[in-house]
C-alpha cells in the first residue's frame, strides 16, 4: 500500500477551485486501487493534512496523469500559500484501539 500525504497551507478558494477539486476527487474515487482518504486540520494553524491511500504505485501513477490533476498542479499558487506532497510505501502496519479506523478508509 502507498500513502500520499498532501500537506497544505490554504489560501483563497474560488468556484473554479471547488469545481476542479471535486473533479479530482471523483477521478480518484473512479481509479481502481484508490482506497480512500483521511483529513486532519492543525488546531494551532490553518495547515491541513490529507492522506490518500492507494493499493499500488501503478494505480497512483494512473491517477497522477489525470488531466484535471495535472491542471491543479500547474495552478497551485492560485489557491495555496504552500504545499508539500510525500509518497510513502507502507511495509508494515500494526496497533490496537482504533477499531474500524485502524484500516484505510473505505
UniProtKB/TrEMBL annotation:
It comes from Halolamina salifodinae. The keyword Kinase does not apply. InterPro entries: Dimeric_a/b-barrel, Monooxy_af470. One of its GO terms (molecular function) is monooxygenase activity. This is Heme-degrading monooxygenase HmoA. The keyword Oxidoreductase applies. Keywords: Monooxygenase, Oxidoreductase.
Amino acid at each position: 500500500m502507498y500513502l500520499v500525504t498532501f500537506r497544505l497551507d490554504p489560501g483563497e478558494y474560488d468556484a473554479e477551485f471547488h469545481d476542479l477539486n471535486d473533479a479530482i476527487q471523483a477521478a480518484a474515487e473512479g481509479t481502481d486501487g484508490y482506497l480512500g482518504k483521511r483529513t486532519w486540520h492543525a488546531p494551532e494553524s490553518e495547515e491541513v493534512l490529507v492522506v490518500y491511500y492507494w493499493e499500488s504505485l501503478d494505480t497512483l501513477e494512473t491517477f497522477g496523469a489525470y488531466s484535471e490533476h495535472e491542471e491543479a498542479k500547474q495552478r497551485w499558487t492560485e489557491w495555496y500559500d504552500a504545499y508539500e506532497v510525500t509518497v510513502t510505501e507502507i511495509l508494515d502496519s500494526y496497533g490496537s484501539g482504533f477499531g474500524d479506523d485502524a484500516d484505510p478508509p473505505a
